[in-house]
Specification:
This protein has 103 residues and is of the alpha+beta class. It has a domain of 67 residues. The chain is 28% helix and 18% strand. It is built from two helices and four strands, in the order H-E-E-E-E-H. A four-stranded antiparallel beta sheet has the order 1-2-3-4, with helices on one face. The chain is elongated. The protein starts with 24 loop residues before the first helix and ends in a 12-residue tail after the last helix. 7% of the residues are buried.
Length: 103
């Protein structure tokens, strides 16, 4: 990475990025960190065996599983009402669109 024109910095200094840039190795970690924070706030827990799978049991005892792959979320559920709440809550943090049921 080269120093931008007009910047006078000594050789060997590093630049601190305030945000992760798309297509860098850190991007997926930044996204996972944000997803994890939101899912935990909503009452989900990440599986120990696979950190990209989150589970939650609502007040009625229904299990909801959310599998996360890159920037896709797959909701597996019995309680549609609770999933709609989770989707609406997550859409306030992420740009989302519903792609209909998985096949």
């Amino acid at each position: 990475m080269n120093i931008p024109p007009g910047q006078n910095r000594p050789e060997g200094h590093v630049w601190w990025l305030r945000k992760a840039l798309y297509s860098l190795k850190q991007t997926s970690q930044e996204l996972y960190t944000k997803v994890h924070e939101i899912m935990v706030r909503l009452g989900y827990k990440a599986l120990v065996a696979n950190k990209c799978v989150f589970t939650c049991i609502n007040a009625n005892g229904h299990l909801i599983i959310v599998a996360v792959y890159v920037d896709n979320f797959l909701f597996i559920f019995k309680s549609l009402k609770f999933v709609k709440f989770s989707k609406s809550e997550m859409s306030s943090h992420f740009e989302m669109k519903d792609l209909d049921p998985a096949k």
